[in-house]
Amino acid sequence: MTAIVKAYGVHKHFGHLHVLKGVDLEVAERELVFVIGPSGSGKSTLLRCLNRLEQPSSGSIEVAGIDMLSPKTDINHARQHIGMVFQSFNLYPHMTALGNVMLALRKVAGKGKAEAETLAQAALDRVGLADRAHHRPAELSGGQQQRVAIARSIALEPRVMLFDEPTSALDPELVGSVLAVMRDLRESGMTMIVVSHEMGFAKNAADRVIFMDDGLIVEQGPPAAIFDTPAHERTRAFIGQIQQH
Amino acid sequence: MTAWDKFLDAFFNAKVMAKYLPDILAGTLLTIELAILIVVSGILAGLLLALVRSLSFRPLNLLIIFVVDLLRSLPPLVIIVLLYFGMPSAGWSPSGFMSTWLSLSLVLMAFSEEIFWAGITSVHKGQWEASRSTGLGFGQTLMNVVLPQALRLTIAPLTNRTIAITKGTALGTVVALHEILGMASSAVSNSYNPSPLILGSAAYLILFIPVVIAARWIEKKYSWKR
Lengths: 245, 226
Known about the structure:
The complex is a heterodimer. Chain A has 9 helices and 10 strands. By secondary structure, chain A is α/β, with parallel strands linked by helices. Chain B is mostly helical. The A-B interface holds A 51, 53, 76-80, 82-84, 86, 88, 90-94, 103-104, 107-109, 136, 138-139, 149, 152-153, 156 and B 124, 126-127, 129-137, 140, 144-145, 148-149, 152, 224-226.
């Protein structure tokens, strides 16, 4: 197994807060890793360190062969290979769905207008929104907005996709459409790291589940092992809590 | 002569108005010229300062904040007078036109910088993150994602401030500038009749009402549902 994400000894301090306390994470190509844990456990921060939206205080991070923390790395170039999907979608409200997807294709990947448009249209098609290309985000449902956000990332053909609670801001009836797109991505062989509490999805789609608490990885393993027979008391308590909902 | 006739003779004297109309028109042209210069240079300088401020370079930002606060605190008239009557002793004698243009541009720069800055900071952090995460650089994100959203928020306050400051061209009278008010008041002194002031007011209305209407139109055009 070749690891496409290699993070070792990652620490992150926010002032006095010690959010990540030495996390080691390797993710293999085509692997889908789920990260769960109570709020404040550092799972989102870990994800944001991987594409350096947060600057780790110490440690090393390599993604797709690129040393993310080296000052010599062109971080904008590196980020093209790492897609990220946010809890609050963060679509650009002043652009259409197509415009949202085209922006980085044009400005980062350097595609011409016609080619960018073709690629963007194809990406929207892939998330089932070809017919919404000319709609503004405000004219789309939450689930559609999140799918546009996924299209915005996959249009750049990333090597790894990071999902930061992609369905937490959605009404329950809209979650399914986003998970369907994620499942499709998974089947196409995309390497994915997903911070989420969608247990059902984790159970049948994840290769590995990581439980984080208090800035550390407490335990990890196949979904069945983590959900049904967790080794640690903290994992058991957390899974018990979220399964009540 | 009844009181009503006296009033008409004083403020709407057709003969006086006809005589001084060319002067008022000349003053109007000068005001338009000056106003355009002030709006363009003031707003561009303000935008530039706001963009520089977004680089978050602390010493530079402290300087910007200091200059902006200073300019916002001083009455524009004081700045005009300082430039026109004060600078000659420092070896530079700006004309009345130059003094008024520079002063009002500086004041508009200060206010518009604050307005642009407020617009930039009001754009949600997630917008920056989404753009940066797809590989756009700081400048690309600022110009393509943040600024278009910020500008939309700034249009209403910016227009109000611009109109307020541009009307300050009338302050140019104190430095012998022959803009609308200057022309009107010298016409009043020469004719012993205040009618030219009515002409002057009409000129200001004709000048600024379209600007106010245009502002409403722009505001509407650039609004979108969030």
